[in-house]
Amino acid sequence: MMEVVVKATTANLGPGFDCLGLALDIENRVRFIKSHKDFSDKNNMIYMAAKKVFDIAGKNMPMIDIEQQVGIPVCRGLGSSAACIAAGCIAGNIMSGANLSIDELIEIGTEIEGHPDNIVPAFLGGFTVSSMDEGKVVYYRREAYEGFKYAVMYPEYTLPTSQARGVLPKEIAFGDGVFNVGKASLFTAAMIAGDGELLKYACKDKLHQRYRKSLVPGFDEIVDKAQSLGALASFLSGAGPTIIAILSKDEKGFEIAMREHLKSVKGNWTLKVVRASNEGAKIL
Ligand code: HSE
């Protein structure tokens, strides 16, 4: 038996579309158990990722069963698919004896997911910046600043990433691109420096949130409320529908007031305040 623990991740963090990422202290535990019958769901992301590593190693995948203890809300923009992929790759690497490096596993994971922004922090933990360069993932990883905490707010409904990518425009105005380059750069600097004041100016975005918010009723209302309660930044987590507000670690009062406010927003919203995680996917 092998058990892998893997964390939730938030991507984009507002302006950093498909490149910024952060691991959060919400986890799944995935157990791989030798079995006498083959795993029935061949489309399961964990299974597919493990099988891909076996294929690369030129080995046959043994019969296994997969059990999960799920803490990461599924299909909510909190990296549940990246978590499954990372868990499958890590376990597949050990079980097959492929002995691939973490960077090779990140390449495989990114190929399966299609973009690196959840995959990189799912493997490595911390705050990450990643970008594709001629088909390869190039990334920067930093321990997450300890002085922030994260209010993670998600409704009961799910939102498939494919649907949330489907509402994005094919082209953007030059000025909007310039706007986001500036904000994403500021955001990165603020996360590295732990500068909450800078974050307030950095979390604006013109590339995706304004198109996606029609899929998340109450988005503007929740973000406005978060700002009025002193959030340093608030944004759609990944493709949504989760909304995350960054708070100063010592902040008091946000959770109670926001929980009350969320009762008035359609969707039966849940609120959890968590820390970032500097732990990547690992075998227990
Ligand atoms: N960067 C991705 C998006 C994250 O916003 O579509 C979701 O997988």
List the helices and strands and how they pair.
Layout (H helix, E strand, L loop, with lengths): L1 E10 L8 E15 L10 H13 L6 E6 L10 H17 L5 H12 L5 H6 L2 E7 L2 E7 L5 E7 L6 H6 L7 H20 L2 H7 L6 H4 L6 H10 L4 E4 L6 E6 L5 H9 L7 E5 L7 E2 L1
Antiparallel strand pairs: 1-2, 1-10, 2-3, 2-4, 4-5, 6-8, 6-9, 7-8
Helix pairs in contact: 1-2, 2-3, 6-7
The structure holds L-homoserine.
The site of L-homoserine has 13 residues, from helix 5.
Give the key terms.
284 residues, 10 helices, binds L-homoserine, globular, alpha+beta, 6-stranded antiparallel β-sheet
Mean pLDDT: 97
Query: Would you count the extended β strands for me?
Result: 10
Q: Name the assembly state.
A: single chain
Query: Structural class given helices, strands, pairing?
Result: alpha+beta
Low-pLDDT sequence parts: none
Question: Helix and strand succession?
Answer: EEHEHHHEEEHHHHHEEHEE
Short description:
The chain is of the alpha+beta class. Helices cover 37% and strands 24% of the residues. Strand 7 and strand 8 form a beta hairpin.
What does it look like?
The protein is of the alpha+beta class. It contains ten helices and ten strands. The protein has helices at 45-57, 80-96, 102-113, 119-124, 161-166, 174-193, 196-202, 209-212, 219-228, 254-262, and strands at residues 2-11, 20-34, 64-69, 127-133, 136-142, 148-154, 233-236, 243-248, 270-274, 282-283. Strands 1, 2, 3, 4, 5 and 10 form a six-stranded antiparallel beta sheet that branches. Helix 1 runs parallel beside helix 2, helix 2 (80-96) crosses helix 3 and helix 6 packs antiparallel against helix 7. The longest helix has 20 residues, at 174-193. The chain is globular and about 55 Å long. The model has no long low-confidence stretch (mean pLDDT 97).
